[in-house]
Fold:
Amino acid sequence: MLWPKFESEEVALNLAFTGTIKDDILERIDIAYYLTKFLIENYKTKLCQRYKITEEWMEQKLEKEQAENENIYEIMLEIGKKRGCILSGGKIDEEKTARILLDEFKNGRIGKITIECPKKN
Structure:
């Protein structure tokens, strides 16, 4: 069975966040990156509370003069560090970080989160 074409990339990502789309269709690390970005934009406080990151630290990362995707990626790696996803040599295990982030989101451990809101007319 083939996946239907999605209305938009946003719909596909929202389905991936909840585990509706299997990991072999979209890369888990990419999904976790976009989830991190979504949470920063919409639920920053909950994200900071769950992973014991200060909002000030996060704001400093987001204001760094580099591409936005690098800033968000650094925040995702910090989450991995906070959750103990460290390989030998101090490198962060991206795959384990992604798995933890997605599992904790799906199981409601980050908090009550709505990924889609009704559109206002």
